[in-house]
């Protein structure tokens, strides 16, 4: 296990840590990446370079338990200016002449729902996430006028970007089993080897060590397109550069949202050519099934999250991923499958008898692989982002650099919805960084 302390802080109350156990089968699976042209091994996951590396998880290494906002900030919090109202749902933000003055929320007791209002002395901070933050803004009359009119909501601020630019990390399912992978113990032994399973349980219950100290694994490949597709990444970049970007969005998309999307696609042309912009992520586990698939870290498709116009206040918002709506996403995913096959069949892992069952060895032509993609891609890794983007208003932005909503006084957004384009990584650290930066901005006045 390799990491570099210079890339990690030591003052946060939210911890990152390593488990006390790793499976021995990780060694050949990691080493096989060294045989892939263009794949590098940076000194740390925080070094800012694409490659194969170990990474910690949000775990308190002393208590060997999950470390997150609750344990870091909320537990044992005893402050006179902090109150938490549970089992409640925000209905809308109260606006007075374009200024946020409070929040209306609902509580249901004995099947009776009542509305209550809390007034804000200074400002309202909205942190409902990329799904519900745009919903609350739209319910408050802040959003695209066409959608608000359809829902019967009076428009207070016509802000086209609210609920648009929706992104997530699509996951491509692919199954290749190493039939002769007789390296034990491995994760499957927890299910089939009674002695190992009993030992693992005892180790955890006795001193919180062993396999159960592993969360989701600690090593993965995060690779740029030049490593994934040495022969085709330049063609894919050129195709994106020549693409009619507006045609990839719904026909009624606001011109400012189109302009923002075009700016993003221009940046992604360069990103596809960069060896250090990770597009592909695949964890390995030390199991006979090293990984169940790969993740597209920079989808070019954009969806939306809008109120349900037939029942805006009581129904959940309409979430439209529009996965693979930009066909170049499919071009990239085809290259993902080819790379993953080379990793299993053209490296030292071939000695372990790889057998592909999905999509299967007969699916080799690009068109056939694309047909498979349409049934094998999940649109989400549960990283929803982008629906209230921090961009200039003329590019479809919703908040400025101070997290303030355009056209509304005393209202900020602090969550993943402000991320203009998803990072080439999981979103947890990014959201923590947004929150910490927001705290500095708010305290500075």
Automatic annotation (TrEMBL):
Annotated residues for binding of FAD: 90
Cofactor(s) of this protein: FAD
Q: Name one GO biological process term.
A: secondary metabolite biosynthetic process
Q: Which UniProt keywords apply?
A: FAD, Flavoprotein
Question: What does the record give under GO molecular function?
Answer: flavin adenine dinucleotide binding; oxidoreductase activity, acting on CH-OH group of donors
- Source organism, top-level taxon: Eukaryota
Quote the InterPro entries the UniProt record gives: FAD/NAD-bd_sf (IPR036188), GMC_OxRdtase (IPR012132), GMC_OxRdtase_N (IPR000172), GMC_OxRtase_C (IPR007867)
Give the Glucose-methanol-choline oxidoreductase N-terminal domain ranges.
129-143
Task: Describe the family membership recorded for this protein in Swiss-Prot or TrEMBL.
Answer: Belongs to the GMC oxidoreductase family.
Q: What name does the UniProt record give this protein?
A: Glucose-methanol-choline oxidoreductase N-terminal domain-containing protein
The species is Monosporascus ibericus
């Amino acid at each position: 296990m390799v990491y570099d302390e210079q890339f990690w802080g030591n003052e946060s109350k939210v911890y990152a840590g390593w488990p006390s156990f790793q499976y021995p089968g990780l060694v050949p699976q990691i080493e096989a990446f060294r045989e892939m042209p263009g794949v590098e091994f940076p000194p740390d996951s925080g070094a800012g370079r694409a490659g194969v590396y170990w990474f910690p998880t949000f775990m308190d290494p002393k208590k060997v338990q999950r470390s997150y906002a609750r344990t870091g900030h909320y537990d044992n919090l005893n402050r006179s200016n902090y109150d938490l109202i549970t089992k409640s749902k925000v209905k809308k933000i109260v606006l007075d002449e374009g200024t946020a003055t409070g929040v209306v929320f609902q509580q249901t007791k004995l099947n009776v729902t009542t509305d209550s209002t809390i007034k804000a002395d200074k400002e309202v901070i909205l942190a409902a996430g990329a799904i519900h933050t745009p919903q609350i803004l739209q319910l408050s009359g802040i959003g695209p006028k066409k959608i608000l009119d359809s829902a019967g909501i009076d428009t207070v601020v016509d802000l086209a970007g609210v609920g648009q630019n929706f992104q997530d990390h699509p996951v491509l399912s692919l199954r290749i089993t190493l039939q002769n992978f007789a390296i034990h113990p491995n994760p499957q032994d927890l299910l089939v080897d009674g002695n190992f399973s009993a030992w693992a349980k005892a180790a955890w219950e006795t001193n919180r060590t062993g396999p159960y100290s592993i969360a989701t694994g600690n090593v993965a490949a995060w690779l740029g397109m030049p490593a994934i597709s040495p022969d085709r990444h330049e063609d894919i970049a050129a195709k994106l550069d020549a693409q009619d970007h507006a045609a990839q969005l719904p026909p009624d998309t606001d011109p400012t949202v189109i302009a923002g999307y075009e700016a993003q696609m221009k940046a992604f042309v360069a990103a596809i050519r960069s060896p250090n912009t990770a597009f592909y992520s695949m964890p390995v586990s030390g199991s006979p099934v090293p990984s169940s698939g790969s993740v597209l870290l920079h989808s070019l498709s954009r969806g939306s999250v809008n109120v349900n116009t037939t029942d805006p206040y009581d129904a959940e918002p309409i979430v439209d991923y529009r996965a693979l709506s930009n066909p170049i996403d499919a071009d990239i995913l085809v290259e993902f499958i080819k790379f993953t096959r080379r990793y299993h069949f053209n490296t030292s892992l071939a000695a372990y008898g790889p057998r592909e069952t999905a999509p299967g060895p007969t699916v080799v032509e690009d068109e056939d692989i694309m047909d498979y993609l349409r049934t094998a891609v999940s649109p989400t890794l549960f990283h929803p982002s982008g629906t209230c983007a921090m961009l200039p208003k003329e590019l479809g932005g919703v908040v400025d650099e101070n997290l303030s909503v355009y056209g509304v006084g005393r209202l900020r957004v602090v969550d993943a919805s402000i991320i203009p384009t998803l990072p080439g990584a999981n979103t947890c650290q990014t959201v923590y960084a947004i929150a910490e930066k927001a705290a500095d901005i708010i305290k500075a006045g």
